[in-house]
Amino acid sequence: MKVLPFVVAAAAVLLSACASTSNPADTANAGNTAIVSGNSGSTTGSAGSSSLNPAQPLPQVDAAGAEAAAYAGVNGKSVFFDFDQFAIKDEYKSVVEAHAAYLGKYKGHVLVQGNTDVRGSREYNLALGQRRAESVKQSLEVLGVKPEQVEAVSFGMEKPRATGTADSDHAQNRRADFAYQ
Amino acid sequence: MHRLIAYCWRVLLLAMMLAAPLARADLTVDIVGGGSSRYPLTILPMQNEEWLPEAVTQTVKSDLAMTGLFGLLEPPGGTVLPASPQAFDPAPWQQNGSRAVLYGKVTKLEGGLLRLTFWAETVNPREQKLAAEFDVHSSQLRDVAHRIADMVYEALLGSKSLFASRIAFVVQKGKESRLQVADVDGRRAQTVLRSAEPIISPAWSPDGSRLAYVSFENKKPVIYVQDLATGQRRLLANFKGSNSAPTWSPDGRKLAIVLTLSGNSQVYIINADGTGLSRFSYSDAIDTEPVFSPDGRQIAFVSDRSGGPQIYIQALDGSKTVRRVTFQGVYNVSPAFSPDGRQLAYVRREGGRFKVMLQDLATGDARMISNSAFDESPSFAPNGKMVLYASDEGGRSVLYAASTQHPGRVKLGVLEGQVQDAAWGPFNP
Prior knowledge:
The complex is a heterodimer of chains A (181) and B (429). Chain A is of the alpha+beta class.
């Protein structure tokens, strides 16, 4: 059999040219990881071009006034949902009413954050969590809260409160939280 | 037929720029499942391969095994390694069932360069399918190995290979989420974003230069686009409510995203620079997980307008023609178009288990290609021959790649962390 001669395409000269071209890239690589910290929304590293709108970590609570007490009364109170459901159960109507009363009196702004259990598509769960958050938002508005005071958002299955796989764990995760800003 | 392949390193430079070993999280390739019609191939060590700091033919073997298309045969001990076609004797390989043999040699050149010369020949009848030579530095050996795997794949199977591409995925370590980009085999993983809050839904731009993703760093999901070479990123969508599920149009000029401006999750189209928002889907249900067809004329998405989540395809021409494409099962989500647009991969829930399905869009026939309990986020290799997905294994999320042609899957097992939300990128530029 016959063997054709090789073409040695990668001559040393070309290689060294290639190598010198690639060096700056290696250097650039050291800085191409963006680092974000969730609570402040700040960005470090070379990704500083993003225009973040930092979320306020906590509401300005008037420690001397009734507002503090009112805030303490609603802070951390969540609404829990049945599997595949977004209707607010009777036992959680008082929770929604308490948040509505607080928002009506103190004119704050709240993020209603919907959550799902850790099963299924991440994006579809994000949409299901949104549906739960919207359900709470609508209930708040029925109780007189202004639409501009409420933003319904979703964490989907990404921030489970319980990480186990028992039914009780899943039940903990099917919820809407209230984050005041 | 003799094939002569000349090769210049210049074309690999872009790949190497982004694939420099920054943060290594080595993944291992395990073959699970089998197939009967694989190409029987023997890969011999190169003569003098022990001179190399890294076993090139091991990577070539691992790559070709990963495709599920090759049945690799082990040479018997004491095999004399041929260092030229003149020295190659096909007889023993005809007897061990090989259809072809890959062999070669390593030579030292001036200036620390190494010359890798190799040949692939069929043995019955004997025919040279490939002959090539690389002069490289030792730092380039992994790129050479992937390139050899591509050349062997293409010379023996006659179709486009897949190792000149990369994958993206999210690794969760404790509370930290890392968006990483790696070689197809999961090696040389680089972190492109670290966050104390979840990152989901990475999506490659068609030219492989950028990733869009959803970040929760601002107490709600918003969409960023990040340039991989520079690390520069910017907000693409931060509208009131949730912003999620980005995917790119084939020309890279637009993205389909999901917003909740109407009080429910709906599909919108936005320019890649963040301008020109327009609503695409109109329902009072959930519409999410949009993906453009490869011809750019349609979008497949998930909607629960009929009750449970099913996959629909809607034209982009303004006619708003919508057709449902999944009818089996009550839960079909996460669609991905094959590169030729003829197949759809998606996830079906059946009996509490989540499986990756592969459906022929012309006939509607669908078959299961994954076999675990919680499989998610399928995406096609750019040559359409494999589907990458995340799977649960004893409470840990790992990545698998399944052949679209033969039964069989490969696990890309990372050492630690939850590896999820896999996205197979396009061919490297």
